[in-house]
Amino acid sequence: MGRRLVSFLRNRHLFVAFLTLVLLVGAREVRLYDPVFVASLRALTFDVYQRLKPRVPLGQPIRIIDIDEESIAQYGQWPWPRTQLARLVDRIAALGAACIAFDMVFSEPDRTGPAGFLRELEERGWPGRAEIGPLLSGIPDNDLVFAQSIARVPTVLGFFNEARSQMGLPEPKAGFVVLGDDPAPLLNQIRGSVMSLPPYRQASTGSGTISLGQGDADGVVRRVPMFIADENGQKFPAMALETLRVVQGEGTYILKTSQASGEVSAGNEAMTEFKVGQFQVPVTANGELMLYYSKNDPSLYLSAKDILSLSDEELAPLIEGHIILFGASAAGLRDIRLTALGESVPGVFMHEQIIDQILSGAFLSRPDWATGAELAALFVVTLALAVILPHSGAYVSAGIGAVLTATVSAGSWFAFARYGLLLDPVFPMLVSGLIFLMTTIFIFAIAERERRFVRNAFQRYLAPDLLKKLEEHPQSLRLGGEIRHMTFMFMDVRGFTPISEKLTPEELVTFLNRLLSPLSEAIQEREGAIDKYIGDSIMAFWNAPLDVTDHPLKAARAALAMVGIVNELNERDAFGFKAGSSGIGDVGIGIGLNSGPGCVGNMGSTSRFNYSVVGDAVNIAARIESSCKEIGWPVLLSETTAEACREFAILEAGSIALKGKSEPVTLYALVGDETLAGSPAWQDLAARHAELMASRTRGAGPAEIDRLTNACLATAPPGLAPFYSKLISRRAAAIVVEEHQ
C-alpha cells in the first residue's frame, strides 16, 4: 500500500488530476453553500458591470419634488403645516400631474392647525380653551384640507414596515391574481406598519410600502421587494408599483410563480414575474426586482419652493403628464441610500429608478441555471489547465488559462450587456487560478524533488554544466536502460600493488584522494560522467545521461589532461614519495578509450541502484587500458575512437590480442592534440611511422625495420622511446612464435 502511494505521488499526471478533482468538488460545495464573501464578490462584479454600462434612462415623465435646503429655508423646518402641503398638491394637480406619490408617512395629526392647537391647549390644561374653541371652529382643519387636496388628484401614500407598531396594516387598494401557487410564503413578511392617518388613506388612490428592504452588508441596495405579505397571505405592493398601477388606472396585479401553466420549476417553488397593466416585470424567487441603475440626474429634481414661486409657463413642461414623487434631501431629513454605481442618493431616487426601469423595460435577471453555468465554466477551465499543465509547463498553461478566463469574462460581459443576464465570471476565474497555483506549486515541488534526486545522484560524477542541464531536463534521465553510442574510459595506476605495500592505510588513502581528485575534475570539466571508482581505477563515460557532442574528442582531451596532471604532480613531488624513504618513484597511469554502443541507465534493485553502463564496448575499453604496459604508452585508443580523433597526434600501435577477443584488435597511441599534430616534426614522424607499420605488415626484414624504427625515434618527441622499444620487442616475439609454429 505504501509503495502504491509513493508511486501515485510520483506520477504527476495522476496526482494533478486527483488534486484538481478534489479541489473542484470542494469549490462546488462552497459555491452551492454560497458564503457571504462569495456572494459579496459576485455582487461587486455586477456593480462593476453597471458602472461600465449604466442603464440609459429613456426620458420617461418622472419628476422628484425635493424638500431640499432651499425649501426648508423658504418654508421653515419640517414638518410643514399640512395646509402648505395641500397648496403644493393643488398647484401640482392644476399643472396636470398624472399622479403624485409621497415617499413619506403622515402618521400623526397636524399640530399647527386649529384642531391641533386646541389639542395642545387641552394637553396643557389651559383654562381659556372653552372660549377659544368657538372662535376657531370656523377655520378648516389642516388635516382635512390636505385630505381634500389628496382626493382631487390620483395620489399614492406610503407606509413602512415596523413590527413594533400598533397601527396595524393599511387597507388594500388593489386586487391580486395569482398564476400558480400562492407566492405569499416566498415574499418578505410584514407584521406591523407605520402608515398615514385614516383620512389620508381614505382619500388616496393607492397605498404602497416605501421600505427598500435590508440592503446588502455593504449598504448597497441591489434588490428591492416588489411585494410583501402578512401572516394571512394578504399582499401589499411597493410604492413605485402602486404608482404605476394608479397611473394606468388598473385595479389588479397578476403574480406568476414557477408552477404556473407553461413554467417548469428548476427546484423549489419560486416567483418568476408579475404584471401591472401593460408592464410585465421579471423578479427573483422571493419577488424582488434587481435594480439596474442609471446615473443620478439633477434634472429629475425640482425644489419644493419652486412649485409656488415659478410661473405656470415655467412649471407646466416639468409637471404636466408627469409622475410626481415627493421626497426629501435636506440635511436631517435625508434617507440616504447607496447605489451600485457608487452614488449616495436620497431614498426617493430609488423609487424613481424602479418606475423608470419598468417603463424602459431594461431588466436584470439571474436565471436559475446561472450557478450551473458558472460551475460548468469552472470545471472546463480548470480541467483544461489540469490536462495541459503537466505537459506544457506553467508559462504555456498560464497563457492558455488567460485565454480561457478572458473568454469566460467576455461571455459574462456579453450576457450582461446584451441580455441583462448576471453570470459571475469571478468565482470560476479565482478558483481555477487557485487550483492552477496549487498544482503549479505541486509540480514545482516534484521538479525540485527530481532536481535534488538528480543532484544527489550525479553531483560527484558529472561536470557542473552537465549537471545543470540534467536538472533543467530531468526527463533526459530515463529509469531503466537505453542504448546510446558512447565513449568509455578506464584509468588505472601503474604499479599500484607495490605502492600499496609500502604505504600505511592512511597514507594510501591520502595518496589516492590526492591523485584521483584532479583526475576526476579533468573528466568532469570535459563533460564526462564518472561511473565508479574501483580502488585505484576510474571508470568514466561520455554522451550519457545527456547528449555530448564530439564525445570521442572530449574523452581524448580529458585523457591528455590526466597524463599532464600526473606529470605535474610527479614534478612537484605532490605525493611526497621522492622526499620520503618509501622508495617509490614517479607515479604512472594507463588510460584506455573505446567508442561504441552501451546500455546505460539505473541498474540494481528497486531499493538500491546505480547509474551505470554495460556492454561489450565497455569491456573492450577495460582491456585496452590493460594493454598500456604492453604497448609502452599511457593512453591507448580503439580504432573507432581513433577514427573520430584523426586531427590529434595519434600513432598506430599494432594489433593486440585482447582478453576475451578471438581476433586481435588494432590500437593507437594518443600522443598529443591538434597543436602537436599540426607541427612539421610530427607530420614527418607520422609519415615515417606509417612506413614502418607498412613494412611490418608486408613482412620486411629486421634490418629494414630497425632502420625505419631509428628514423622514427630521430624525429619523435621525448618519451616515445618505450613505445618503439615495445613495438620492436612485440615484433620479435611474434617472429619467434611464428618460427616455433
Taking the sheet with the most strands, its summary is: 8 strands, mixed
Weakly predicted, low-confidence segments: 5-9, 736-741
> Structural class, please?
alpha/beta
Strand content: 15-25%
Radius of gyration: 51 Å
Query: What is the number of helical segments per DSSP (H or I, 4+ residues)?
Result: 26
Total E-strand runs: 26
What is the end-to-end distance?
69 Å
Question: Please, could you describe this protein's structure?
Answer:
The protein is α/β, with parallel strands linked by helices and 741 residues long. 48% of the residues lie in helices and 19% in strands. A hairpin with a 2-residue loop joins β12 and β13 (279-282). α2 runs antiparallel to α15. The model is unreliable at 5-9 and 736-741 (pLDDT under 50).
List keywords for this structure.
single chain, 741 residues, alpha/beta, 8-stranded mixed sheet, 7-stranded mixed sheet, 26 helices, 26 strands
